[in-house]
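From the pipeline queue, job 12 of 40. The input is one protein chain; the requested action is below.

Action: predict structure.
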Amino acid sequence: MQASPTISVINASGLGDAGSAIDLVRSQHVVLINCAGIEQGLAQRLNDMICGALTALGGQLHSISPTLLLACPTLSRVHTI
């Protein structure tokens, strides 16, 4: 039996949350990052940092909405319906 994936939620408050999200993805967690509470420029930098790290790790970053990001480890798949 395959283990269920762990989904972690981060309510972003600063750039330090990028490191937290990356560490979780390295541990094979799917991470939902809520950027609604931070300034748009800061949210873009957070997005850029996570995207770069996930590229290096072979993961994926999906934009669910303008303020929600979904970071997935290498073996995860996201299907849009």
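Job complete. The radius of gyration is 12 Å.
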